Amino acid sequence: MKFPSEPFKIKVVEPIRRTTREERDRLLRHAGYNLFQVPADSVYVDLLTDSGTSAMSDNQWAGMMLGDESYAGSKNYFHFEEVVRSIFGYQHVIPTHQGRMAENLLFSTVLKPGMCVPNNIHFDTTRANVEHQGAEALDVVIKEAYDPHCDVPFKGNMDLLRLEHAINRIGRDRIPLVMITITNNSGGGQPVSMANIRETRALVNRYGIPLFFDACRFAENCFFIKEREAGYAEKPVIDIARELFGYGDGCTMSAKKDGLVNIGGFLSLNNDQWAQDITNLLILVEGFPTYGGLAGRDLEAMARGLREVLDEDYLSFRIGQVRYLGELLDQGGVPIVKPIGGHAVYLNAKEFLPHIPASQFPAQALACALFREYGIRGVEIGAVMFGKHDAVTGQVMYPELEMVRLAIPRRVYTNMQITYVAESIIALYQQRGMINGLKMVYEAPTLRHFTARFDELVLLHT
Ligand code: P61
Fold this sequence. Notes:
Layout: H1 21-30, E1 45-46, H2 58-64, H3 75-88, E2 92-96, H4 99-110, E3 116-119, H5 124-132, E4 136-139, H6 160-170, E5 178-181, H7 194-207, E6 211-214, H8 218-228, H9 237-246, E7 250-254, E8 265-269, H10 272-285, H11 296-308, H12 312-331, E9 344-348, H13 349-352, H14 362-374, E10 376-377, E11 379-381, H15 383-386, E12 388-389, E13 396-397, E14 403-407, H16 415-430, E15 437-442, E16 453-457
Parallel strand pairs: 1-10, 3-4, 5-6, 6-7
Antiparallel strand pairs: 2-8, 7-8, 9-14, 11-14, 12-13, 15-16
Helix pairs in contact: 1-14, 2-11, 3-11, 4-5, 4-10, 8-9, 12-16, 14-16
Bound molecules: ligand P61.
């Protein structure tokens, strides 16, 4: 089958409320045109994120009932540790309540002001946590990643030439680690090839620099390797994952993605000294090392989710469902980023709304219109999330890509709901001329997209 059907049946349902356009219009104005500020129960299909929004399996829920809530030495921790070691292969397993805490613990331990972390593309929390230490977050993805039309199979790859130049320019002593984000969320959910990871390893080895993965969507990345990379078609995805992590020295993980849980994360690594320092900090800010900010039941759900996510029937349905949405949109003429990513379809807002200049936040305007007209919530990944003021001139610097991400929660929506999303976006595309630009009227100093407020520029383009 071109698009595999669901490899599960539904046992519990959550009703969704239908709202009117008038109600959504009112809510949108009240929210300052920021979709993070609208109540979730006014959303019909919520594609804001695939993070923490998965449906857990009956097996995971059963595991929740086996939570051992002992302060120290919970049996769920040992199960979790065993599962993480069996997939990722690193010695130390440090649970955290979610991914950004793993990033915070790692970077506050290994970074000093003036240092630098190269990554294919830092996700916003990763960038913010690096910069919070006074260090530089340097993106060194291949240049094709910035071309929404360039249809190459591993668009998340590191640009090894640029990486080597950066190491020589900055100096090995100022780079405590190199990171690779799999899949590359900010570049369209694009995978990184095993060959590129192997070559990155060989390069950093020459300089004695450790390699870490931002592993949030590792199973999806490994499935793409199986589908697209020569020599991997017959390999089980779990073996691909083991090989991949074998090229690294550690990883940060938000289990809210490929851990198939609603909350949880971890940091796993081999360096004993770093692990000790991180654990000391963990005790200060998260909790005892055998629960790290989570309940025993959460650790059990995570342990089970990490195994389930490697099921290949699940993965082919999962990647297929995202591709199904992307192909419907593409056939309907809607400009999307190619190739279709692992967890999301990205609308190319610059081409969707050519009448709205970059200074009027076309992707934010598109995301708002999609909510107002059809009750669908996506997320802006463009100038609101990544735009910056130059520190010296104060001038606004715009990111190259201006996108609306439609992230598909795992095991949550049926293909009929996905069809509704595609048909709605195609209809919106046909009336795109009526969408107005926005003016930002409030921004916070960091991670501004969560709380920014806008006004609609109603008359400017008519
Ligand atoms: C997402 F609008 N991602 O994609 P935490 N690395 C990577 C991520 O994708 C990621 C984290 C680290 C989210 C949630 C999100 O401004 C936003 O468990 C590649 O969320 O702490 C999270 O993991 C951090 C959405 C996060 C946002 C921040 O939707």
